[in-house]
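User: Please predict structures.

Assistant: First:
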Amino acid sequence: MIGMVKAAVILGAGTLLLGCDRSGYETAPVVLKHTAGKITCQLYTVDRVMWDHAINFPDAISKADADAVCFAEGERRLAEYKAAKKAAKG
């Protein structure tokens, strides 16, 4: 019984996320320099770092690795945002 409830919750949450329109959270695409070449990232607002991904990358790097570079950039920006917010509070 508990397993069925967990499955229903997971399925419901997944359905909500799939139906979510991300375009309202997008920033302008960002081009990052990497040893393999330029990686173009689609980043989202700082509270949506988990959505950050590569939209263009060189053949010398895998999609997963390019996505990781973009995710790391999103994390860097989030840390920068939090530090600025903390400094503003004093």
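Second:
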Amino acid sequence: MLFILTLTFFIYHSIWVRNPLPADEELITKFQLHRDDFTEAVRRYQAYPRSPDKDPSLWFTEGDTSDLLKQAGIEGISSAAGVWLPDPYSAETEVKTDNKIRDLESVKVLAQYATLRIKPSPRDRYYSNTLRHVVVWKDFYFFPQAPRVEEGELLWPARGSEKPSMRSRVLPSLNKWPDQWKRFECVYRRIEPQWFLRMCNGH
């Protein structure tokens, strides 16, 4: 009987409680050890020329960038949701953002001012299949401007009809499953004013 209870508890804990992803501390240590490399990788991604005769997806092939990413333990960098011009929460900036995204320079704008997702390597260490949430993963997020965090929520810049702006939960730790974790929700942990850890589920 004790064996069955122990086994039941183990299965329940493994499926519904245990987070199989590496602890935040591992990612934070990686970032701190290679902070200059992370910063330089972001700079190169933002500065890479976006023009009709260049494939922006090959930005990492320039010079020693591939070696830099490998040294820092970065699998890749890509633009993500959110455009962060200076003073990102003002009404004037909201209009500027909409205008810039509509014009032909939008690709350059997104490269320079978009939130950036930095995927750590090796990929399979920070990405896991689970019965409860199907897939879960952790990565780094860089914000060109330091975002506001109010009452445990990250405020994204408003655009057009987005009133109020989108909000995302910011937690003190991502080592456990968040309470009432919604499907496809991403939660964040701030590690520096412009740098966050992010954990998402794909269910």
